[in-house]
Write a structure and sequence with these properties.
The chain is built from 20 helices and four strands. Helix 10 packs across helix 12, helix 14 crosses helix 18 and helix 19 packs across helix 20. The chain has a four-stranded mixed β-sheet. By secondary structure, it is mainly alpha-helical.
């Protein structure tokens, strides 16, 4: 009997279906009368069926079904650089020397070419600063001036601009501005080695399955703390961050660092959210030391601050999303596959990491379902319908890899993010941030429809109703303000 129970515990968890009837919702929420009408069965959580969920997600689709059907107007990725040349280079980069450099990069991959363009634009601004003239007045001799090149090499990352500097140095020598051999270009920023305990912490987080970005940010916060202690606390002066004794760091030292970071927040050098991330990273580091080495964390009063993490922002309209997908259709290497990825984010609210992890075996075309691998190694089942289902069917016929969108999760994430930035620029978008905008749009649109909070929580796959409440509050704010204004009567 005990062996049987043990085997049951070791069985993998069954994916949570996010659309069947669910009688277990018992959370207390705000008075529903203040948020939406409750006269219809649509607002009865006990009657949320798959049919109603599909109606919520697909009945009034944000994207037109006809997007992406034209075959004759496609240019592929090679057309992106030409668009950038015509719309960015010729309009923003006037010196012919810099245009000539960008011509040598025109056959680079689009995300490489845009990086070269941004670096060239930055150099142009630095030259204008050195010469004390407006950017529009910068000419070739200003760019090739030794003082301009020297200043730029000191303020631009050599790693990304080495080819640009080599091009300008050769040209400057050829035109007689520099009468010497080309000096070697070396990056002046060498990363300090990490402390051994920080490397242990890094390995620990990797074993737990944290994202590379989260791991990188966490160890950087701890390393910065060690660096500050070596530079500002007498007990640690003369040592490098990699040599500092972790067990000599006391509570008073951490509180001193916290005070320093709080002052940075007060002076608006550091954002409140960055401050909270820093505190949590250091606390987590000490909890790891306690778990691994039995070291008691010196964290008395080493606390974070309350920060509002939800910032309302504009979301794209139906027409704007249509325009975005038309750009994808015209310039993507595999238009249908890339449209499918972005539609997953828009129509089902998937995170970028969730899209990257989709495997072909996660899709059941017979039952119109897809398994989503979410945060915390949780899984959910969501319905497929409409244009989304049709695209899955079409792409399934050409399946070549284990993952739906490529061979590597990391590569898939990078490509979707990098090309999103290009497509959004070409579609004329000015929305800040990255692809998470699509998930924000998805949740906001659900809230604007007056969907029950528990249903939004399940469909958006968030842990707390408080998060849903923020979207509902913002979605209804404009309506409440209009209603209040309408109560005023003007003659």
């Amino acid at each position: 009997m005990e062996n049987h129970r043990s085997n049951e515990k070791n069985q993998p968890k069954k994916p949570q279906e996010s659309f069947p009837q669910n009688f277990s919702f018992a959370e207390k929420i705000l008075d529903p009368d203040g948020m939406f009408s409750s006269l219809s069965d649509d607002y009865d959580i006990r009657k949320v069926t798959r049919e109603k969920v599909e109606n919520i997600l697909y009945a009034n689709q944000l994207i037109s079904d006809h997007v992406g059907t034209e075959e004759t107007d496609r240019l592929g990725p090679q057309g992106i650089n030409q668009w950038l040349w015509e719309n960015k280079v010729l309009r923003e980069i006037s010196p012919s020397t810099l245009q000539d450099y960008l011509k040598t990069c025109i056959y680079n991959a689009p995300h490489v070419f845009i990086r070269r363009l941004k670096m060239t634009r930055s150099l142009l601004q630095l030259v204008a600063k050195v010469q004390r003239i407006p950017v529009a007045q910068v000419q070739n001799h200003h760019v090739l001036d030794p003082s301009s090149i020297r200043y730029a090499t000191e303020h631009l990352a050599i790693r990304y601009s080495k080819s640009l500097f080599q091009f300008l140095l050769k040209l400057s020598i050829h035109n007689g501005y520099i009468n010497e051999k080309i000096p070697p270009l070396h990056s002046t920023s060498k990363q300090e080695p990490f402390h051994p305990r920080i490397l242990n912490y890094k390995s620990h987080m990797e074993s737990k399955g944290f994202s590379p970005k989260h791991i990188r940010n966490s160890i950087t916060h701890v390393q910065q703390c060690f660096h500050w202690l070596c530079s500002n606390v007498q007990e640690f002066q003369g040592k490098s961050p990699a040599e500092i004794s972790v067990f000599h760091i006391q509570n008073k030292h951490l509180l001193m660092y916290r005070t320093y970071k709080r002052k940075m927040v007060k002076d608006r050098v550091c954002s409140p959210i960055t401050f909270t991330h820093c505190i949590y990273a250091i606390r987590s580091f000490y909890y790891f030391l306690n778990e691994r080495f039995g070291y008691e964390p010196p964290l008395y009063r080493f606390e974070s601050i309350t920060v509002e993490r939800y910032h309302p922002r504009d979301i794209p309209t139906r027409d704007q999303i249509d325009s975005f997908l038309q750009v994808v259709n015209r310039y993507a290497k595999e238009p249908k596959l890339e449209q499918l990825g972005y539609r997953f984010m828009i129509e089902l609210g998937l995170r970028l990491s969730e899209v990257a992890k989709i495997k072909w075996k996660d899709i059941n075309l017979a039952t119109h379902n897809i398994v989503i691998h979410s945060k915390g190694k949780k899984t959910h089942i969501l319905p497929l319908a409409g244009k989304l289902y049709e695209l899955v069917q079409e792409c399934h016929n050409n399946a070549k890899t284990t993952y739906l969108f490529g061979k590597s999760v990391r590569t898939i994430e990078n490509q979707f993010y990098e090309y999103y930035k290009l497509y959004a620029m070409m579609a004329g978008w000015s929305f800040p941030g990255g692809v998470h905008l699509f998930r924000h749009t998805f949740t906001t649109n659900l809230a604007m429809k007056g969907i029950l909070p528990q249903t939004i929580k399940e469909l958006a796959r968030v842990q707390m109703l408080n998060t849903v409440g923020l979207y509902i509050h913002m979605a209804n704010q404009d309506t409440r303000l209009i209603n209040q204004i309408n109560l005023l009567s003007y003659e």
